[in-house]
């Protein structure tokens, strides 16, 4: 095949470059040897400078987000309870396990407390290491205990500085990926600058520090950089083995630190599958990447005490199906265009059917229902029927799980990122379509070059991978706003690569018949430099203003509530309330919870729906019975939920509960015909009237402008 012939020529060329022939070495004037040595020295110098710039930019980013965090909260000056309250919702839950490990009498007792936890969910003992991705908190707490830093650094600072340090790793990985694709570290610098100037849309680490994605995305970026390097041609066997090891380690760490890892890697597997179908990636390397994904996820499964949600993931089913289908269809890439198209369609259908069958079989065997809420949400989101399911609607009504807002693109356009991205995406997509068609039809790239040299279109495997990667993750971001951080960071890489790419500019200049190697070289360096100068001129003053703006954490009502709980309730007290608030209650007070924000468990979802009846139209007897069934001693009611105005009618929490209970919603507007009026008023409103039917079960023991705490009577 022509591709094999080119590869052989390339190897010969590479060998000639790496090991100059004797004939060149013995030339009398020594000019060839001198030029070769000079070129090597220049490459070494360029790599050294690029590496220094990468590390410097990464460290500056880390300091930048740390400074923003300090300036926004005055973190160094506020009380410990205020620091802990600043870790909102699920962030507080995750950090509480780090705190628990730090405060344990020994590492062994700390681990035992996590494996046999009876404070996160009342009247149940659960394995936190099996249920949640908190190995990073465990590792960090052990590291803090064994290092001689306790006198110099508080545990909370060790934690947040680690995450801010990971931002340096993240930016360096983006920088390196862009550098590998374009061949110049100028591209990496531009990617890093875009990442920083588009911070609102590329990261939220400074205000959601313990969030799982802030741990995972740096490792995902490292994995993408390693895959990009792996897909380069002519790697030596040692280089290939080392790169595969790097991919495996990064994949494993990414999977270990985020519960949604399987869905992100499924999209990555689809990228590999699409490119392999069109013969745009080396088959052997694709197979290795499938195996690495499976093995990394299975290793995490073992560490998480054989978490059934991992075993039942679509990723394992899909990758296994692809590997099985490859053994069945051995001659997939042979034949004419129509023959290959037919084989390809059959191959896709075979993989799809095998994936569904394997996944259904695994879930049937394991009786797995942990992730059913995700599929209900996706089914409703993409219009496959309306749903009254409380869990699905809870996601559908959250802005983070809605479509990507249009103002995102205006912000990205201010830095020129979006314009450049669309331009590069268009050029690369055209090239990919041409190459894919040529591969399917069996045309020879070499013959094509000989006939029409100036219109040769090529697409290197590493560029092809990053193209499909950005397209698929772009679709994910457009459909679900919370996932935009996976796309926008890679958008910086892809746009900067295209702007500094010889191949992109060569193709464009040849199409308009003005190509010359010198002109290409001038454009690929001048335009990125001009872009960098524009970004610096426009955004440097704003960054300086941002760094000089000082704010302070202020949430007196929540602070008052937490202090009251610590001072006036027993350590064994069980609290019920909203998921978000209870995460803070566990972190700040150590009290036992009825429910919490980590939603990947069916029994917890059912429990949460029951607890939330405090905001529904239910009788006091029903609510009391439900709360006592979970061992509740105190219930916290929030006015911000009871009288919610943040969401529109139909998406308020009380509306979701009314619909799930078959009751008509409050306020003006339409209701579905089968919904009926409730026999009881709304519990969270009526309880404040101190009617006898309520006071017999509930006694108010604390209140402020935001919260009302009621103690449950213990009837015999």
From TrEMBL:
It comes from Pluvianellus socialis (Magellanic plover). InterPro entries: Dpy-19/Dpy-19-like (IPR018732), Dpy19L3 (IPR047465). Its main location: membrane. This is D19L3 mannosyltransferase. Residues 1-10 have a biased composition (Basic residues). It is found in: Membrane. Residues 1-32 are annotated as: Disordered. GO terms for cellular component: nuclear inner membrane. One of its GO terms (molecular function) is mannosyltransferase activity. The chain crosses the membrane at residues 41-66, 156-174, 179-197, 217-235, 242-260, 297-324, 344-362, 416-437, 522-540. Belongs to the dpy-19 family. Keywords: Glycosyltransferase, Membrane, Transferase, Transmembrane, Transmembrane helix. It is a multi-pass membrane protein.
């Amino acid at each position: 095949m022509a591709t094999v012939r080119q590869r052989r020529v390339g190897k010969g060329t590479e060998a000639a470059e790496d090991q100059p022939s004797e004939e060149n070495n013995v030339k009398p004037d020594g000019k060839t040897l001198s030029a070769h040595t000079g070129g090597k020295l220049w490459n070494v110098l360029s790599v050294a400078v690029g590496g220094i710039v990468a590390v410097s930019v990464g460290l500056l980013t880390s300091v930048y987000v740390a400074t923003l965090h300090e300036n926004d909260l005055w973190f160094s000056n506020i009380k410990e309870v205020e620091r802990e309250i600043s870790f909102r919702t699920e962030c507080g839950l995750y950090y509480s396990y780090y705190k628990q490990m730090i405060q344990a009498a020994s590492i062994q007792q700390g681990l035992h407390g996590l494996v046999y936890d009876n404070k996160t969910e009342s009247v149940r003992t659960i394995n936190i290491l099996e249920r949640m991705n908190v190995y990073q908190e465990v590792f960090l707490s052990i590291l803090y205990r064994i290092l001689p830093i306790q006198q110099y650094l508080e545990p909370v600072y060790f934690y947040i500085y680690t995450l801010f340090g990971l931002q340096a790793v993240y930016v360096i990985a983006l920088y390196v990926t862009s550098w590998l694709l374009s061949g110049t570290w100028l591209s990496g610098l531009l990617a890093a600058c875009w990442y920083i100037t588009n911070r609102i849309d590329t990261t939220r680490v400074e205000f959601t520090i313990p969030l799982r994605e802030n741990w995972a995305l740096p490792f995902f970026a490292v994995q993408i950089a390693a895959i990009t390097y792996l897909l380069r041609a002519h790697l030596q066997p040692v280089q290939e083995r080392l790169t595969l090891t790097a991919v495996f380690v990064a994949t494993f760490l990414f999977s270990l630190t985020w519960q949604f890892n399987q869905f992100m890697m499924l999209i990555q597997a689809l990228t590999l599958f699409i490119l392999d179908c069109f013969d745009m990636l080396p088959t052997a390397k694709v197979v290795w990447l499938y195996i690495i994904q499976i093995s990394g996820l299975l290793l995490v499964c073992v560490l998480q005490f054989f978490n059934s949600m991992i075993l039942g993931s679509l990723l394992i089913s899909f990758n296994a199906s692809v590997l099985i289908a490859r053994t069945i269809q051995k001659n997939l890439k042979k034949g004419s265009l129509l023959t290959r198209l037919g084989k390809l369609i059959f191959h896709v259908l075979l993989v799809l059917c095998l994936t569904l069958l394997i996944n259904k079989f695994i879930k049937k065997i394991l009786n797995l229902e942990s992730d059913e809420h995700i599929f209900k949400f996706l089914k409703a989101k993409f219009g496959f029927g309306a749903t009254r399911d409380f869990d699905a609607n809870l996601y559908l009504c959250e802005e983070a799980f809605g479509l990507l807002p249009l103002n995102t693109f205006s912000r990205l356009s201010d830095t020129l990122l979006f314009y450049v991205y669309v331009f590069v995406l268009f050029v690369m997509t055209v090239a990919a379509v041409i190459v894919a068609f040529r591969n399917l039809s069996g045309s020879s790239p070499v013959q094509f070059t000989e006939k029409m040299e100036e219109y040769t279109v090529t697409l290197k495997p590493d560029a092809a991978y990053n193209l499909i990667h950005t397209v698929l993750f772009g679709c994910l971001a457009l459909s679900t706003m919370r996932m935009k951080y996976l796309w926008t960071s890679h958008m910086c890489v892809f746009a900067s690569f295209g702007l500094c790419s010889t191949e992109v500019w060569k193709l464009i200049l040849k199409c308009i018949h003005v190509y010359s190697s010198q002109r290409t070289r001038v454009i690929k360096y001048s335009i990125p430099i001009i872009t960098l100068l524009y970004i610096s001129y426009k955004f440097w003053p704003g960054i300086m203003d941002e760094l000089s703006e000082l704010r302070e954490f202020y949430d007196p009502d929540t602070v008052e509530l937490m202090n009251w709980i610590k001072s006036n309730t027993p350590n064994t007290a069980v609290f019920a309330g909203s998921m978000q608030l209870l995460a803070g209650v566990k972190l700040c007070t150590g009290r036992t919870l009825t429910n919490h924000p980590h939603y990947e468990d069916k029994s917890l979802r059912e429990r949460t729906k029951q607890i939330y009846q405090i905001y529904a139209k239910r009788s006091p007897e029903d609510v009391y019975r439900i709360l006592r069934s979970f061992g509740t001693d105190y219930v916290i009611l929030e006015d911000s939920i009871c009288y919610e105005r943040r969401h529109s009618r139909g998406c308020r929490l009380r509306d979701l509960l009314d619909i799930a209970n078959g009751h008509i919603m409050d306020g003006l507007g339409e209701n579905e015909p089968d919904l009926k009026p409730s026999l009881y008023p709304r519990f969270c409103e009526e309880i404040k009237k101190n009617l006898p039917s309520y006071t017999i079960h509930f006694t108010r023991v604390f209140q402020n402008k935001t919260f009302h705490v009621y103690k449950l009577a213990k009837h015999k």
